[in-house]
Amino acid sequence: MAKVVIISGTLSERSRLEVVLSLLEERLRWAGHTVAWIQARRLPPDALLRGEADSEALLEAQVRLATADVVVIASPVYKASYTGLLKAYLDLLPQQSLAGKVVLPIAMGGTLAHLLVIDYALRPVLAALGAEHVLQGVYVLDAAVEWRDGQGVVRDPDVVRRLDNAVDRLALAQPKGVSA
């Protein structure tokens, strides 16, 4: 089974995107994969803004990423693109950090008008980092998640289906040396 790293570019502690990512994590674990997270908002802001890629926290995140077979890169849509926080983190990654890895991009936005953010904003950066096997992305509307008693719930069965399909595609796209 694959080692999966979920990179979350959301700035918020209470995030609809992370509700979706937690559901994805549950599905990945159920399929037998191991899952680790890199939450960009928990990385040291000074190191991100100053480009200090050698800070201890960023080096630890780099090791998590380097040992992953599969990388999920997720961001809410801000100003028709992924977050600046995610950009700051991705800018500090070494060249070819995504080479040999299967990558699943996920974006979440308020309207369908931002549906192409994965293809036009995120994919070029993934390619610059060496990603060769980028799966079809999953775009989720904010309205797919609602809050009930302080807990986020994915209420759109289509989102659940698309996440399950992504997990299935992941199994078919395993890197060499990783069993399905």
Automatic annotation (TrEMBL):
SUPFAM superfamilies: Flavoproteins (SSF52218). This is NADPH-dependent FMN reductase-like domain-containing protein. It comes from the Bacteria. It holds the Pfam family FMN_red. Keywords: Flavoprotein, FMN, Oxidoreductase. One of its GO terms (molecular function) is FMN reductase [NAD(P)H] activity. One of its GO terms (biological process) is alkanesulfonate catabolic process. It comes from Alicyclobacillus cellulosilyticus. Residues 3-144 form the NADPH-dependent FMN reductase-like domain.
